[in-house]
DNA sequence: TATGAATGAGCTTTCATTCAT
DNA sequence: AATGAATGAAAGCTCATTCAT
């Protein structure tokens, strides 16, 4: 939704739930545009088409507002990825579809991703904790996939590797690639997901030997 | 260097270069502690043991100051990594030693890394550009390694993969793991580097088949 | 009446007079609790169990509301004191019973007294005038007593003393003692009245000579 | 000092102590004029001829500022009364000279008295405590006088009277008379002190019998 | 060189008050 | 009759920045 459309929606005497959505939408837009600190409540109120006292009345302080932005967007992201995963297919396919869904979300919700990834971490521990929880959630999901795949192949977990550490690196790589993508558009979510699969599932070594991973 | 040591250094009539170093050290400390916007020039001047007019006289505005922090720390990081790499060994070993040097730097310069990675990206395009340049530098180095390894094995670059994209993902994974590390200390730089090597050089697939990469 | 009882009374479609009483009761409570300026109309409406527009519709602005609080409580106080005085007894007994009635009112209506004495004077001339009128009323009553006692003893008013001035001091002493009482409970209205009688009717000089005034 | 004189003093680059005095003077003026809550820091800064950041830098928050006003004026009042008392004369004369000094102070520092007596009590417990301490100080002084006079006449303290209670009433009467005076000028401090002496030292009873207390 | 003194500008937040239903 | 929704206006406070010494 563009900002002008958001403003076009403004009218008078709307029910509280609608106003809250307007305000959160505007807040995500503005926080993504300037970052938390430089963003002014004035701009949020302007973009939302709502006076400042309404914001404070409905959503609370600037911190409260930011926190609720983060939580809403985090839940949306989780939902998008979960919906994108087919739990009945092989581990690598689950990873691939999950990644594709992730990049699909980022593509459609640039502002959400910016707020979640770039801003929330920089503002303070209180907010970073929310994002850290989100990330932990993702890491956990990936860890399960890897471990289950290992078990299927008859291998116990190798003590010298932390499944969690490897998963953290994978998730981090996925996030970093999402950021990189913001500066290099014109690639589809599927392509990005593919790269990550080849890098992490096969590894450089296999790649240079001519092997390629492809969604089956 | 601790903050008290920094303050202990304050005295009068010092040469300009010394003052500038004091100020930049203090600024990095303060920017890492609070982030760019909440950091106040008052606190910088206090930590540096230098009056505010001196800061403005020597290093310019708050933005200028931050920019110079970023640049100095970026150069230090580059230097540390370059020094850590032995260009005469195999590609995988170069990657490994480079990563180890990177994590070594992060371990020793927490504040520098925080400013570079968490703050600079969130403040504005002007600063993000500096970090992006730094990252591009890293990506370029990795790309060379991968491509040369591929050539050595007689393979041309495969069209469907962007060596740059893969490298971006690897670099991103390395950065993400550095962040993750901040919350999970008690691991040596070598261990982290090892994880990344196994994840990206071998890939999950090899790992679950029992293969392990080890520095030769 | 406790606050919860006040709220329990809230319901719909009550006659105007009842609503106005609810509102004034709540207002006195809230103004006594926080003082005029920090008190918010929101809190008044909440305590009264009545929406803000009703308050404005029935009793006007915040100033109007406060004014009506003051007037109602002032009239209550006057009524309580007048009822407590037996006009057929001697002057000193009238004074004593009047004082006792005054302290009885203060004991039972803490909030009223706080609003009348501490808040109304501090807010502005418009409100102070109401309290000043109340006080003048009291001074006048006391003056009559003193003058009539003087006449009974065959003495004209002595030019060098203003009966009004002396009465003002007595009334002031009575008020001050009421305030002091708020911080030193556990004394009965009769005891306080007794002190004042001994101080002002007899005077320190008589007291130190062993004389004591007692209600006859 | 008039407000215009205060402003006339404004100039640039003054030492901190001078600025602090300017600001406190202005604050007392403004707090007396409007009361604590309606008084704005903008007006204080305007009257002081100093920008708001200086006020916050030197004196702290609005509450801090108010507190320091109260404390400064309380100390001034105490000093004025102490200086006015000759401790080598009889008890009644000490009381009289003390009262005269008190009214002299009030006459010369109207704003100080208004802030101390009308505003500080109404704003909140934190401030009222300061004034209560001041009043306790006065009560204590009076109590000593009365008790010493009783001892001199060979009488022990009478159990049924609290010397403190009587003194509180006297002090309250003195304060009340000061307030009353603000609305009835054209009387000298000596006259007011005289009234109080006759009321409390002799008492109504003696007065109506034709006795009069006069400074010896 | 070095700094205490000083401020313009802007931010978050709150409140008395009213409209539209 | 009664109220949830809405806001203009203003207050307290802070900060990057500079001047005068």
TrEMBL record, chains A, B, C, D:
Which residues, as ranges, make up the DNA-binding region of this protein? 40-59
What keywords are assigned to this protein? DNA-binding, Transcription, Transcription regulation
Instruction: Please state what the protein is called.
Output: TetR/AcrR family transcriptional regulator
The cross-references to PANTHER family, in alphabetical order and at most eight, read: HTH-TYPE TRANSCRIPTIONAL REGULATOR RUTR (PTHR30055), POSSIBLE TRANSCRIPTIONAL REGULATORY PROTEIN (PROBABLY TETR-FAMILY) (PTHR30055:SF158)
Origin species, per record, is: Prauserella halophila
Q: Which domain of life is it from?
A: Bacteria
Q: Which residues form the HTH tetR-type domain?
A: 17-77
